[in-house]
Design a protein that fits this description.
The complex is a heterodimer of chains A (228) and B (204).
Chain A: H1 18-25, H2 41-46, H3 51-74, H4 84-106, H5 108-114, H6 125-133, H7 140-170, E1 172-173, E2 176-177, H8 203-220
Antiparallel strand pairs in A: 1-2
Chain B: H1 2-13, H2 24-29, H3 34-63, H4 84-106, H5 108-114, H6 117-121, H7 125-137, H8 142-170, H9 182-197
The chains are: A mainly alpha (228), B mainly alpha (204).
Chain lengths: 228, 204
């Protein structure tokens, strides 16, 4: 499910060395957490009906991935291997509690409509997957970058889905009317040429859109094509 | 009747996969053959039916505002509900660990069948999702919760076995190369989700 870990680096390397930049740019395309590593799909699909939800979710997951990677990387030499899963869960769970309380305090409406999916960041496989695959074998600095890169890679897909689904499904972006109201066909406005695609708001459409995104991505980036 | 209603509803209408996308990661990764899909599906049913009622009891006797009233009057005002994430996930992880050890000791045959899937389940979102939905929907009794958990588990089982069956067959078809593997699986799941949407509105 995840690619090989990068080897530990020598301390003399600068923060923005080529290798470190790769940590951020790789997850955007070649090892995108959603479309290539198949991590963290549940939340990506469920919260993307509206753009604002997608952005808040992407930001929360990025924050938790960075912090989780950082703390587990700090503790990587003192945590016994046998109990590492439970330690990871505890670390991630308290980070998510903080995120949840912050969301409740500042963006209450979004937090309400994300419902259980804030809590489900705990079991979001991106976080556990990156901790297991990267943070446990690398220094805190690169781990933060890896968390950031994967968070952004995840965010790109969420924002793409959010834009397509909200624009075509309800003619809005970030809750603001984008398609002029007189373009949209309804009983009161029979001259409108665009019929809102209610299907975009339904859950299955998120899956099909991700499928199409993968198709487009792999058609351009042929080394990602699977044998079967 | 209400119990049956919740049960059917959580299998077909509020299907964990098609309506909420919970447990997608293992759903996509382990659905290559029907045999392994059945193993993982069984493990999910089992763990879900055990942990959700357990978490219900913890929620109602420890975490809810006023839940500690049984310890005495002075505890009545305590609200521990902000701890629920960490407690739920700890219960799930501990339970999975316990089950794994006891199944290995007492039922080696079952362990052989479920073996590698049990640890995977601790981070399967459908298990924690079950606990969080239980908390959000405020079911009135433990019987309701159990039928919700069992139904959700069976819904997940049906979904993964169906997908595995389709994926076994699709190997013989000409899928466009960039769509092979993950891409077509997403689209298939979407189409299955559309089919499952037709169950909406069923009531007993």
């Amino acid at each position: 499910m995840s690619e090989a870990t990068a080897p530990a680096k020598s301390p003399s390397e600068g923060l923005f060395s080529k290798k470190n930049r790769k940590l951020i740019t790789d997850p955007l395309n070649d090892s995108n957490p959603i479309t290539v590593q198949v991590l963290g799909i549940c939340s990506a699909l469920a919260v993307t009906v509206k753009l604002d939800n997608s952005v808040v979710m992407a930001a929360s997951v990025t924050a938790v991935t960075i912090m989780g990677n950082f703390f587990m990387s700090l503790m990587r030499n003192i945590v016994p291997n046998r109990i590492r899963i439970i330690v990871q869960l505890v670390v991630v769970a308290w980070l998510v509690i903080i995120v949840d309380q912050v969301l409740k305090a500042y963006v209450y409406d979004v937090s309400k409509s994300l419902s259980v999916f804030v809590g489900l960041i705990i079991t979001n496989c991106i976080i556990m997957g990156r901790i297991e695959a990267f943070a446990l074998g690398n220094k805190p600095g690169p781990s933060i970058l890896d968390g950031l890169g994967n968070g952004i890679g995840y965010g790109i897909i969420l924002i793409f889905l959010g834009i397509v689904r909200e624009l075509f499904g309800s003619g809005k972006l970030w809750n603001a009317q984008v398609l002029p109201a007189n373009w949209i066909y309804s009983m009161d406005n029979p001259d409108g040429w665009y019929v809102l695609n209610n299907f975009m708001i339904m859950p299955p459409m998120a899956l099909i859109l991700v499928g199409l995104y993968i198709w487009a991505q792999r058609a351009r980036n042929t080394k990602l094509i699977e044998a079967h | 009747m209400e119990l049956l209603n919740i049960f059917i509803k959580s299998i077909f209408i509020d299907n964990m996969i098609f309506a909420f996308f919970l447990g997608m990661c293992s759903y996509l990764a382990v659905s290559k053959t029907v045999k392994t899909a059945v193993g993982l599906g069984m493990a999910v049913i089992f763990v879900l039916t055990m942990t959700v009622p357990l978490n219900y009891l913890i929620e109602n006797y420890f975490l809810k505002p006023g839940a500690l009233a049984w310890m005495g009057e002075e505890y009545k005002s305590i609200d521990l509900s902000f701890l629920s994430f960490i407690v739920f996930i700890a219960v799930v992880a501990a339970f999975v660990q316990l089950v794994e050890m006891s199944v290995e000791k007492f039922l080696p045959a079952l362990y052989g069948a479920l073996g590698i899937f049990l640890p995977l389940i601790a981070v399967n979102c459908s298990i924690l999702g079950g606990a969080l939905f239980m908390q959000e929907r405020q079911y009135p009794s433990i019987a309701h919760v159990t039928s919700f958990a069992l139904g959700s588990g069976i819904g997940w089982f049906i979904a993964i076995v169906l997908l595995a069956a389709i994926r076994e067959k699709i190997r013989y078809s000409h899928v466009p190369a960039p769509l092979r593997g993950l891409g077509i699986t997403f689209i298939l799941t979407g189409l299955m989700g559309i089919a499952f949407m037709s169950f909406m509105g069923i009531k007993f």
